[in-house]
Amino acid sequence: MIHPKLSLQRPLAILGAALIGLTGVVAVATPASAHHTTITATAECDRLTGERVITWKVVNSEDKKDATVQRVTADPNTPVTSLVEGVKEAKPLQGLVIPQASYKLATQRVPGNTTVAHLQVYAEWIKGDKVTANNTANGEINLAADKSCTPAPKCVEVDKAKYSHTFDGPKGTATVKLDGDLPLCGEGKQWFTLVSYFAPRPQFATPQYVYGTPDSDWIGGTQTEITLNVEIPDCHTQVDLIWGGKDEVIDELVDGGKRYDNKKLGSPGAPGNRSKGPQGWYNGGSKNCTTPASTFASTCDGSVAVSLSNDGKISKYAVEFEVKGENGFTKKVSVAPGKADTSIVVPAADAGKIEVLVDGKVIENGTYSWQRPEDCPLPAVTTKADCKTFALTVTNPEGGLPVKSTFTYEGKTETRTVAAGASETVTFKAGKDKTAIVALPDMDLEMEAIYTPEGNCGGAGGGGEEPSLPLTGAAAGGIAAGAVALLIAGAVLFIIARRRRVTFTA
User: Fold this and answer.
1) Do 194 and 318 fall within a single domain?
2) Backbone φ and ψ of 124, nearest 5°
3) Which end of the chain is least crowded, N or C, by CB within 10 Å?
4) Cα separations in angstroms, 285 against 196, 197, 281, 311, 343
5) What is the largest CA-CA distance in the chain?
6) Which string of b and e fits 421-438 if b means at least 16 CB within 10 Å?
7) CA–CA distance, 473 with 38 (Å, rounded to integer)
8) Closest alpha carbon to 198 in 239, 168, 255, 169
9) Are residues 279 and 329 in the same domain?
10) What is the average pLDDT value for the chain, to the nearest integer?
11) Residue 109 falls inside a structural domain
């Protein structure tokens, strides 16, 4: 028998042998006898369990005899099992026969924070029924050089999770996806929200107001990807993809107020920088978020009342209107959203063509010219005739425009402008013509009067017997329907008609 103390007499040359694997250094104790065993080891980390897995290699140096392992002592004291090729179920190393000049492999699982592991193997060489030699070998592996082995994570904490996203501001769509293969831990959820705004400009400007309903969803459990969609206003807008739920939405973005800052995904700072992708914000749109409109009403005195409104579906901002008249009139007025202004009257002298402008551009249906209202009273025409003269008078009612009038008789024409509330008379020398014409060109009206003097002029001028009253031209009913004024002075009838001449005799 070899005395155990003899094992200390050999140099410890093989204690520095390098291990094959991730970690470990083995110190080997061997006897001076030719019969001995040696032990080396390697180690790996099992990330699923957080344990170190040591592979021990026990070598029989005797090239003519088998060695039988009689005793195995391990520190840490965990099972050491052999690796037998072709055998699924591992067996203890103790009792195993190591063939001559061969080795056996065994594995041992130790805690992940183990710094040093030891293995001692006592083996005997037996011939017949007698022990001819024995040996105790010691092996050691240093695990301190490697970091503590910990189990691989099975989930990711909410505050450590990373994401990636897509973003299409003009379409109002976005996606957010959890990075990696691990779900969020426990009941953890991370909310994200897509929101759109009315905006005063296609670049960032305030104030802004939330449009429609923001879309919000969360990632957690088995839900690792979400899609968000919002409606975009048909005008200037801002769209933001933000970190958090609807409680993070700012209803109104005002000057000096709250901002999303780094809550927008794709921002340079936290938490927005925890998601990789394009910048999660957009400013654009081609139209103003207002609905300016105007209506016009002509009055009999030639002025025009202009009504301005800002109450359309997308009217969120005050509108600065400018009303211009062709003859120099101009006035600006601000109309709040949802309101109207009816205070602007363009005087007759300044009207001409009227334009309503916003931001220097004429709005839709914003051009108008005065039109005579149908209910305005018409000027009245009266006559007075005797054997020497034929007098024609135009009377213009109050509240109307001045009326240009032309009087034509016996080839002579006189023109007068009759002010509102006044009358103008033209007297012609009686002649052979039986008719005279009074025209109001601004109204596109023309009247024909038959000269019938009062009394008997001795055959001159058609005097004598009173003529019959035949009606020529338009039917009498049509005349009444056209609101034509018939005025009788003496024995002469006049009729007013548009674009046609109607003759009455009396």
Assistant:
1) no
2) -130, 145
3) N
4) 12, 11, 13, 20, 32
5) 185
6) eeebbbbbebeebeebeb
7) 140
8) 239
9) no
10) 83
11) yes
| Environment class of 270 (CB within 10 Å of its CB; exposed 0-12, middle 13-18, buried 19+) | exposed
**Closest C-alpha to 209, from 198, 201, 220:** 198
Structure-token match 């022990």, residue found: 131
Q: Is residue 504 part of a domain?
A: no
In a domain, 151, yes or no: no
Quick one: 198 and 280 in the same domain? yes
Instruction: Return the pLDDT at 71.
Output: 93
Judgement on whether residues 232 and 176 belong to the same structural domain of the protein = yes
Question: Where does the pLDDT of residue 475 fall: very low under 50, low under 70, confident under 90, or very high at 90 and above?
Answer: very low
Phi, psi of 481 (to 5 degrees): -65, -30
Q: Are 149 and 112 in contact (CB under 8 A)?
A: yes
Q: Extract the tokens encoding 280.
A: 């999660």
The string of DSSP codes covering 273-303 is GGEESS-SEEEE-SS-S---EEEEEE-TTS-
Q: How far apart are CA 47 and CA 265, in angstroms?
A: 33
DSSP 443: G
If asked whether residues 116 and 167 sit together in one domain, one would say no
Quick one: residue 186, left, alpha or beta (phi over 0 = left, psi -120 to 50 = alpha)?
A: left
For 221, the token pair is 């459990």
Amino acid at residue number 4: P
Do 230 and 211 lie in one domain? The reply is: yes
The whole domain housing 365 covers 293-369
Residue 415 lies in a domain: yes
Tell me if residue 350 falls in helix, strand or coil. helix
**Residue 224 pLDDT:** 97
pLDDT level of residue 19 (50, 70, 90 thresholds): very low
Instruction: Express each pLDDT in 57-110 by its tens digit.
Output: 999 998 888 999 999 999 999 999 987 666 566 788 888 889 999 998 999 999
State how many domains the chain has: 4
What is the three-class DSSP state of 506?
Answer: coil
Pairing mode, strands 275-276 and 163-168: parallel
Cα–Cα nearest to 232, from 314, 316, 319: 314
- From 312, 335, 369, the end of a domain falls on 369
Give the span between the Cα atoms of 297 and 306, in whole angstroms.
7
- Residues in CB range of 85: below 8 A, 6 or more apart: none
Residues 47 and 167 in one domain: no
Spell out where 156-303 has E strands: 163-168, 173-178, 190-198, 208-219, 225-229, 237-243, 252-253, 275-276, 281-284, 293-298
Q: Of 109, 142, 175, at which residue does a domain stop?
A: 142
| Pairwise CA distance, residues 76 & 370, whole Å | 107
> Residues for the chain: how many in total?
506
Say which CATH number the domain at 325 has: 2.60.40
